[in-house]
Design goal:
2 helices; two-stranded antiparallel ribbon; four-stranded antiparallel beta sheet
Length: 97
Amino acid sequence: MFEVDFPYHHYVAVTALSPVSGCAIDQLFRTLLPLLNPLPTHYLAIRKNEKVEIKMFYEIIKLKNEGLWQEGWRVIEVVGDELLERPIEESGLAVHL
C-alpha cells in the first residue's frame, strides 16, 4: 500500500505504508511516470533589466551549458512555502549542470 502526493506541483512524495519489494517499487514508477508528464516544469528566469520570462527546465539547462546564461539572471523556485530568487548554481537546477 502506498500514498502519492504532489505538494506544490513541483515534486512527487511517495510514502510506503508497509515494507515493499524492489518489484513493487518498479511497478510504482511504471504507474507514476505517465502521470508526471503533465506536471509543470517551468521556472522563472529574471534578466538584469528586471524582465521576467518563463522558461522550461531543459531550456534553462541548455542556456547554461551553452554559455548563454547571463550572470545577473536568477531562477525563482519554490522552497518550502517560499519563492526564492537564486543564482542558478544555488538553485535546485544545480545538480543538472
